[in-house]
Amino acid sequence: MGWIRAAVSAVAVLVLGIATPVAHAALEGTVATEQVEVDVSSRSVAVTSGFNGTELVVFGSVANSRQDSPESGYYDVVIVVEGVMSPVVARRKSSVGGLWINTASIRFGSLPSYYAIASTRPIDEIADADVRNVHRIGFSHVPMQVASKGFSSGLSQSELTAFQESVVRLKRKDGLYISEDYSVAFIGRSLFRAAIGLPANIPVGPVTARVYLFRSGAMLSTADVTVALTRQGLDRYLHTMSKSQPLLYGLLCVALAVGAGMLGSTLFRKGSH
Amino acid sequence: MNFYLPIAELSVNIFVFLGMGAAVGFLSGMFGVGGGFLMTPLLIFSGIPSAVAVGTEAAQIVASSVSGAIAQYRRKNVDVKLGVVLLVGGILGSIIGVEVVKILRRIGQFDLVISLAYVTFLGAIGTLMLIESLNTIRKSRAGHVASRRSGQHSWIHGLPLKMRFNRSKLYISAIPPFVIGAFVGFLAALMGVGGGFIMIPAMIYLLRVPTNVVVGTSLFQIVFVTGMTTVLHATQNYTVDIVLALLLMTGGVIGAQFGAVAGEKLKGEQLRFLLAALVLMVCLRLAWDLVVEPSELYSISSLTGGH
Fold first, then answer.
1. Testing the interface with B: which of A100, A152, A254 to mutate, by most B Cβ within 10 A?
2. Residue ranges of domains in chain A
3. Is B296 a member of any domain?
4. Are A65 and A77 in contact (CB under 8 A)?
5. Tell me, what's the ipTM?
6. Which of B11, B227, B298 is closest, CB to CB, to A200?
7. What confidence tens digit (pLDDT) does each residue in B132-184 have?
8. What residues of chain B lie within 8 A of the CB of A86, using their CB?
9. What is the DSSP code (8-state) at residue A202?
10. Is residue B64 within 8 Å of A261, Cβ to Cβ?
């Protein structure tokens, strides 16, 4: 069978020998397309009992960069960091007999629990709404599908919009939806970085950082990287136990309470005599 | 120093909650009350989800009542038979209460119901205590108590299923203590309280239990009912935060010791006046939030009811 292998090798050499100069010619003759590459400072973040938020550095580079200097503003970079998707119930209060109570509600099936945007300049200057909508860039382009409506099924479009805006507003208030213009900085002709805050209340789950490279309103390239945000240590143990063995967990809580109460009275009795 | 609460899913400053436990422990030691009716609203004010506040507070009440219950038992101040009747009712009430919490959370009305329940009970009890303590301070006697006693006495003695409670020297129907126990168990599950503030007056005025066994028997019931409520909240609603409970217990146990010492230096009616003022302040704060137009009409929660 040696002759077959030899023949294949010969053909391969021939093909490569012809193809390589052609490829070079294409690169030199036309435009070398920019490719964006991305990575993060840490691929895994542990949520332990001491977790108080952390900072994620997202950095990347533009292969075949054609800008002259970091300050030239030739490219625009948008970084979107999304947390785990989860359902959200939004409720609205109204006055009923002098009391402010929840009277309308909407359940959104799945939306990012955390959403951060960092960019080289305001995103509405970088790309128009259609482009941003396609790539889910910006709070108004976060997907919010209505899963079910409670109380009042006949909500108008304006009421639905008000609900969607309230979700974004409240998420921003909780520090879970973050937007920072001018927070992506080029360090060299191709290297850029941004620091994204992961708040203490970020829901646990995979976090995805997506990078978009723009030039004059057109998206040239995109890349993404995933960060594993997982519970670790005692916190993981207690959380898992409370969900998988709730009876045992409940009994443990009671045992702890009895122990704490008894210990307290014993210590006090010793101290007072 | 911050600590991440595994169930509430919040990062909190541990000293805030140790301090809160100590402050409420101090007050409960001083006034001789459980403190659940102060702690649960405080937890809600400080941003703990109300369902987690209620579930966790149940565990904390176990800790704050257990040593008192054992001490009372040793002094033979517990009518175990009466306590068991109260307890059977209490467990039934707690089971119903935990299910009600589950349903209310699903339809998004738990915050409203808990606020209304607190405003009602704190308002009524605070007002009664304030009037009573002011009357005592003025050294005028409250005549209405005697008339209410005899009025309730007659119909309770007409009920069937009579039982003999030796320690309390009572021969009464088992139905009233069962119903009182059930009501208290329901409130324990719904409001995150022990329910002593309902049970003690009910035992004195409705059942006419001698005062020397009232506190011990009430504590006996509270320990078991709140223990049961803790387990039920943990299994049905997943709302007991063990880390938060431990912070509150630690603060509470220490605070109660100092409170007890401080309480001895004040007169009974002065204590009741101060407690009444405190209760009414919490009540007004909750009522204010219900009545005044909130700056944010919308709210969001990840909770969809049931897991």
1. A254
2. 34-85+111-143+157-254
3. no
4. no
5. 0.85
6. B11
7. 888 877 764 444 444 444 445 567 777 778 888 888 888 888 899 999 999 99
8. 302
9. P
10. yes
CA–CA dist B245, B39 (Å, integer): 11
Please name the CATH architecture into which domain A34-85+111-143+157-254 falls.
Sandwich (2.60)
- How far is B211 from B200, CA to CA, in rounded Å? 9
Is B16 within the bounds of a domain?
Answer: yes
The Cα B153–Cα B131 span in angstroms is: 24
Q: How many CB atoms lie within 10 A of CB A70?
A: 15
Q: Which domain holds residue B255?
A: 11-291
Compute how many other C-beta atoms are within 10 angstroms of the C-beta atom of residue B102. Answer: 18
CA angle A77, A83, A87 (to 5 degrees): 130
Which residue type occupies B288? Answer: W
Tell me the C-alpha to C-alpha distance, in Å, between residue A71 and each of A58, A186, A244, B140.
Answer: 19, 7, 54, 84
Selecting from B9, B67, B111 the residue whose C-beta is nearest the C-beta of A262 gives B67
A229 CA: distance to closest CA in chain B (Å)? 14
pLDDT band at residue A149 using 50, 70 and 90 as cut-offs: low
Residue with tokens 């332990």: A48
Residue B300 lies in a domain: no
Calculate how close chain B gets to A119, using CA atoms only, in Å. Answer: 28
Residue A257, token pair as written in the block: 């309470």
Nearest to B199 by CA among B121, B282, B292: B121
Is A257 an 8 Å CB contact of chain B?
yes
Give A226-235 pLDDT, tens digit per residue.
999 998 888 8
Instruction: Note whether residue B90 is domain-resident.
Output: yes
